[in-house]
Specification:
The protein is an alpha/beta fold and about 240 residues long. It has seven helices and 14 strands. It has one domain: Spore Coat Polysaccharide Biosynthesis Protein SpsA, Chain A (Alpha-Beta Complex).
């Protein structure tokens, strides 16, 4: 299985830290944030990765190179004009060779058993699986609603008409998807992958939600960046962490 890391964002909420350095290269425990995610992928046997680039992307490419020194094979999808999550993944579509793949947000720090997520996705024959977590502020993040069977029925209020009781979760920034989800995503245009999800839900496609309660931080503000650094120092998350049994 192959993977994509989304790393084209501007990191505006972390300025001035990101004035001269792209957010994925900010250090956590002395290691660039994006490398934490790359090593998470490698730990679970995923070694072929594509990274989309826009803001200061040349610095990311310079830092990581072809990935060989990390035991990875890294490709790059360069976006002269930022394409968003939908357009960005669509541009990288040929890399996936028509097979399911994993997507991670490049600004998310987490501990997750990706092997179990992929197995969950395959067993349910899902078009896509979103990794979700409980959060009292789920609505603020953009709530993802799942039914008792763990199927995603609405995202930020869009999707199926309200019926069965649902649970609100927040999206943790990791998904497994089949390229078929990208069928109607416009090529070369900025868009959100959420639009493709909503269209698929409305068509009756199986979109699953996989719950996680492991460590997670979006490292999105100076305060959360400082907290993530402290968490790494305390050992709450570690590059050498092993998947849970």
């Amino acid at each position: 299985m192959r993977a994509m890391i989304l790393a084209a964002g501007l990191g505006t909420r972390l300025r001035p830290l990101t004035d001269t350095l792209p957010k994925p290269l900010l250090l956590i425990g002395g290691t660039p944030l994006i490398l934490w995610n790359l090593l998470l992928l490698r730990r679970h046997g995923i070694t072929e990765v594509i990274i989309n680039l826009h803001y200061l992307g040349h610095l990311i490419e310079k830092e990581l190179g072809d990935g060989s020194r990390f035991g990875l094979r890294i490709s790059y999808s360069r976006e002269p004009v930022i394409l968003g999550t939908g357009g960005g993944i669509k541009q990288a579509e040929p890399f996936f060779n028509g097979e399911p793949f994993v997507v991670l947000n490049g600004d998310t720090l987490l501990e997750l058993d990706l092997g179990t997520v992929v197995q969950f996705h395959e067993q349910r024959n899902a078009l896509a699986t979103m990794v979700l977590r409980e959060d009292p502020d789920a609505d603020r993040w953009g709530a993802v609603e799942t039914n008792p069977q763990q199927r995603v029925v609405r995202i930020v209020g869009r999707g199926l008409a309200k019926g069965d009781q649902t649970a609100k979760r927040m999206f943790a920034g990791v998904h497994v998807m089949h390229p078929q989800l990208l069928k109607d995503v416009p090529t070369g245009q900025a868009s959100s992958i959420i639009d493709a999800y909503v269209d698929a839900i409305q068509r009756g496609a199986v979109i699953m939600g996989y719950g996680t309660d492991g460590y997670w931080s979006d490292v999105g503000t100076p305060e959360r960046y400082a907290q993530a650094q402290q968490d790494a120092e305390k050992g709450l998350i570690a590059l050498t962490a092993r998947q849970r049994s």
